[in-house]
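Q: Could you write out the predicted structure for this multi-component system? I'm mainly interested in how the pieces pack against one another.
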Amino acid sequence: MGAGHAHQLYREGRSPVHTLPPHCKIAAVFCFVVVVVSTPREAVWAFGAYALLLAGVAAVARIPAGFLLRRLLIEIPFVAFALLMPFVAEGERVQVLGLSLSQSGLWSAWNILAKGTLGVAASVLLASTTELRSLLLGLQRLRMPPLMVQIASFMIRYGDVITDEMRRMRIARRSRGFEARGVQHWGVLAKSAGALFIRSYERGERVHLAMVSRGYTGTMPVIDDVTASRTQWTYAAALPLTALAVCLTGWMLT
Amino acid sequence: MHVPDGFINAPVSAATGVVAAAAVAVSLRGARRELLDTAGGAGAGGGERTAPLAGLVAAFIFAVQMLNFPVAAGTSGHLLGGALAAILVGPYTGVLCVSVVLLMQGVLFADGGLTALGVNITDMAVVTTVVAYVIFRGLLKLAPGRRRMVTVASLVAALVSVPAAAAAFTALYALGGTTDIAIGKVFTAMVGVHVLIGIGEAAITALTVGAVMAVRPDLVHGARGLTARPLELRNTGPVAAPGAPAVARTADEPEAAPAPADTAPAPAAVTPRRSVRRVWLAGLAAALLCAGVVSFYASASPDGLEKVAHDKGIDKKTEDHATQDSPLADYGVEDITDARLSGGLAGVIGVGATLAVGTGVFVVVRKRRAAAEPAETV
């Protein structure tokens, strides 16, 4: 566990995408997703173009396709949900392979699948090319309230610690022969959760005292302020601007 | 439960984004107050406590969402945490912490779309937490000064908060859904499924709050008025010292206390027994109610898909546990939210799950009774 802070989410690299300032990347990804969401769903080719754009970014960032695809798995619950759509939606019915499917349901399923997948892929690219800490710095640059940034950074920093505590409790339970098999064991698990809360809260108090004793007054000094040059903004803007062009074409053609 | 991009249209997403931002701004202010007067003693002299405490609580919520509660036959669920956060740390901090968790899940794990962040925060952080806290306080007002009431109140609060979030989602969906499924159908499916999820959430929340109440009642924000006076450190002599940690740690692990072998299971079995039975009776009542309403819509469609999704989720999870380099990597596809996918099939699942839960209750109660009687005679 030596490399506790090297997350599997982040892929080390020195590509042009990695070196872009974080707030440019966050803004670019957000604008990209907004553009994707506002594309009419009938413009099927547009989504193909978006996918190609993202594939291009992934290629520049040297993110292997397998890594990207594996992370896309988080979407599975909604894929299943989308697959149900054609069966339950209203409207005209079409016969496909002997099944009666709703036409608008098919369109909705496509809509959710395409937009959801592109959104997830864009976020995955962001998270895998930006370190956790610089993501937070970027959010701060984008005027997220400083207190919120601090809370998020504490959550990120201590997330591993707290999950490790939980894992140690699980090991302690198992080494005493406990195995949660069903509802009758919820009491034990809930006690662990309660203990975990107390430990986290008390750790928070200790962390606070330690910080106060080192001169903390409620604000964290910004040591490494990230700045972005105009060229970097231009590079970052390439993705959403191309997407915007695709989107506008899509609106005009449909 | 995390809504992806493209599910709710752009205007409604933007509007909920504004609502979410306003809610977060209000709770930033409120959380500062809540966490300030949590200071049980002299406190740390006005230092800003919000960031470390709220951050650690957010980390706790994040972690506890990964704690799996086995239901039956290989399926398991996990806590959503909104009601728990509201009761343990107060509504403002609760909203704040759950929002931060959602934000981080969206940005880091791509769980929930970036444009749907407003929808997710409004739905899961604001509605759940506020509804749970209002119900919790309301019930406590009905029977003031009763500590047992805290468990019952948190049970009901969590039970209602989950379907309330589902109803709120349905409302958002009615305003800006991108599919044209009849709203009545969405409502029935969402609320029906989430009543079931809510039963699990309620039981776990009540048990967890009970566990915290047993050890550090001063930390339970919702029960602030009930404990007579704040806990204080007393300088007992070195003789009494070994006893103190044992008392404080009983909730960690039942075996942690250096006790004779036969008493170790007894405290674990006796104290929660009553509350567990009550939890399950309430759960049974709610499940029956749910079945009565939802079964009306039952159809003969297959519900195998649900089971497959569950199995897939389980497989993935066990795999992840094997390669646990980073705990965050654990974060897999969770199962209970999968129930959402059941759409119009909610009726079938509702009845099936109600039966399963119902029979489970009887088995559990019988087993516990059988186990408790010899334990008491020993």
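A: Regarding packing and overall arrangement: Confidence is low (pLDDT under 50) at residues 38-47, 239-274, 290-348 of chain B.
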